[in-house]
Amino acid sequence: MRQLPGGVFAAPELPQQTLSGLPPQTSSVRPLSRRALMGLAALCAAAATWAALTPITGWAQTPSPAAAGVKPGAFPQRPVKIIVAFPAGGGTDIAARVLAPKLSELWGQQVIVENRAGASGVIGTEAAARSVPDGYTLFMGTLGNFSVNQHLFPKMTVDPVRDFAPITQVVDVHFVLLAHPAL
Question: Three-state DSSP class for 70?
Fold first, then answer.
């Protein structure tokens, strides 16, 4: 792929007709479709996420594994648990289950996904906040866990700023409200 004047990215001409149904251009390069650029952007985002995860030697609710007594380069010495505050099969669970095997492969240690559903995510959030801050318990949090629930449940004992240290954004989800055009 190369960049043409004006910031347009182009790929070598394909012998078949393009997805848009337009005939192939006569030059040796054609602009990438919006769909192809979005796919490329998603691939780059995934690669950046994995690249960001690779140098991490430990994750915890504390600022660093060294503060929790973990020797540099020795993490993990036992299985790591990811707590998901929602039932199995939901979006958060799926993201954790896609991430877990990659982390297992990267760290050479088992990564277990544990679902602690209930009370709009409060049960799992509180379980993660109460865990030992040694890096062996991760929490797959959502916007609801960290910002909405504090306002819905005033007796919630978790303070996201005090009890958790962010690592990385794993998923970016957008919701769209649609209706049938005849309405």
Answer: coil
